[in-house]
Amino acid sequence: MNNHGSSVGDIIGRFEKKGFTLKGLKLITVDRSFAEKHYADLSARPFFNGLVEYIISGPVVAMIWEGKNVVATGRKIIGATNPAESAPGTIRGDFAIDIGRNVIHGSDSVESARKEIALWFDEGPVNWQSSLHPWIYE
């Protein structure tokens, strides 16, 4: 997530309210080669350079979230890639205007999430469980 005008706390709160557990969090600056590696699957797309410029333009708050159906549900919390198509109440619907500056990245599959976690968190996620876990999950 690129922190330009959005509230990191509000965004974290949206995932916590769904019962997801934060397993990794760090504030980092991203260099061009790392950004290009992260977005390598989009390198042929016309918006690739803009994505790279955006992610390197300021600090990034990288997160790992865990929970039942977290990838699919997380995509709903985040909203459509194009903020103009994102419903109010979604992160992009509330915090973003331009598709090239859509505030947050979310993995599009469990496989992508595994790759992205390995890239962004080479030390791995934090191994802990919230005391609320038994109240949220069967």
UniProtKB/TrEMBL annotation:
Q: Where is the Nucleoside diphosphate kinase-like domain?
A: 5-128
Q: Does the keyword Protease apply?
A: no
Q: Which Pfam families match?
A: NDK
What are the BP-aspect GO terms? CTP biosynthetic process; GTP biosynthetic process; response to hydrogen peroxide; UTP biosynthetic process
Q: What is its EC number?
A: 2.7.4.6
Co-factor requirement: Mg(2+)
Provide the reaction this enzyme catalyses.
Answer: a 2'-deoxyribonucleoside 5'-diphosphate + ATP = a 2'-deoxyribonucleoside 5'-triphosphate + ADP; a ribonucleoside 5'-diphosphate + ATP = a ribonucleoside 5'-triphosphate + ADP
GO MF: ATP binding; nucleoside diphosphate kinase activity
Checking SMART domains in the record gives: NDK
Q: Which UniProt keywords apply?
A: ATP-binding, Kinase, Nucleotide-binding, Transferase
Tell me the NCBIfam families matching this sequence: PRK00668.1 (NF001908)
Q: Which family does it belong to?
A: Belongs to the NDK family.
Q: What is this protein called?
A: Nucleoside diphosphate kinase
